[in-house]
Fold this protein.
Amino acid sequence: MRQLTALDAQFLNVESATTAAHVAGLAILDSSDGLITRQALADLLLDRLHLSPALSLRLAEVPLGLDRPYWAADPDFDLANHLFESTLPSPGDDWHLADAVARIHARRLDRAHPLWEMHLINGLAGGRVAVYTKVHHAAIDGVSGAETLAALLDLSPDSCRLGPPRTVSDQKVPGVAGMLAGAAVRAAAQPVSAVRSLLRAAGDLDAIPLAAGLPGSRLIAKAVRRASGDRHRRPEVPGLKVPRTPFNGPISAGRHVSFGSLSLKDVKAVAKANGMSANDVVMALCTSALRSWLEERDALPDEPLIVAVPVAVRTGSAREVVGNQISAMVAPMPTNLSDAKERLQAVGATMRAAKRRFALAPASWLSELCSVLPAPVTTLATPALFRLASVAFPPINLIISNVPGPQFPLYLCGARILSYYPMSVLTDLSGGVNITCFSYDGMLDFGVVACPERMDDVWSLLKHMRTALDELLDERVSDEFRDRVGVDLMAR
């Protein structure tokens, strides 16, 4: 038996008529051998479901919503509730695929069943098929999502059968009386636990969106850390004032998606030439693309955009535990700088400072803030609070995620995965566009999800990323040429 944490439950609470809180991935596969069929996927899923608890457990709600739900085995599990098949209209190009995926991504998952779906999409040009899989964010984070995916994949075209699934015997849920008793105990302890959560969060007050802008937030954070015995000298957090952009404001129920890939080798070359990590270059490419997109619409703010970057804090195997173990770094991205090289260096400096601070004391404020209010209050109030905040004081402009993946080919039902594009959540609070990147087999695969009312052209963002990478590669070549010329002149 396991109850959802306050953070897990918040991903349920945030759902509304305009918000679906699942994460997803779009795999493009070589189907020239006809290996990917609905029956092949069904056989694989039934064979390996036991490797990922997130795929076999459903929610057990507490009566009247008095407490957070529990995870429970589904005695009536039926694959027909989770596995679907469709065919694209001709010519089956990426735009048709993106439209189909956007419609599926916009739909919320049925809470009466385990919170996931898999869609086999046929009709793609070039002998390809697509497999789109979504799982509720209450059940997985980025790391556990990658491990859930890995449980279904193979290192060679020859699939390895794993035998019959194990019976899940430790997910029994307390009866109604047990649930209500647990709710009563937690309700009685809530004032004390809320104060503790607030005190723990206060140590990061200078790094929490909105709170960081309050007068004296840095002094309060230092005083709380000193009182708690934390003597680490943490790097100062830059200003986190959120500028107004078209991305921010109430979102609609519709979704647009786009996807594309960049060479990981090229990104690493830029990183090496500038003494930074590949992740820093990814952030710089996103910064440049957002700047170009906003500039085209005369909507570029004078201040940097404020971006949240999810960070995994998981210590054990993600397959063993359902739920989230994540935090977030919040940092300014210098969209206000016009020079590409200067922008790249500024991103590198910002991310280094954020990583140093996180390494000294991984921020727990995200989980702590989710624990402050009682479960019944957060369930009822979250959608309204998120929508109000999006209008009055958005805490960030958007979320950008980068999930590391394997640098070798993987296979699903014997068919090679050519690309894997991740897709994530939009909320009123976090902005109407989300950029997620997954590194796989020598490429960086990007998935962009946007609200149509907040981003009218979701494909141009990827075009701007490619342009930004080309510009940085040209800069690197020019620098190397100048260095070689300088060495030659010195030799003479």
Observations:
- Confidence is low (pLDDT under 50) at residues 485-492.
- The domain at 239-401+424-435+442-491 is CATH 3.30.559.30 (Chloramphenicol Acetyltransferase).
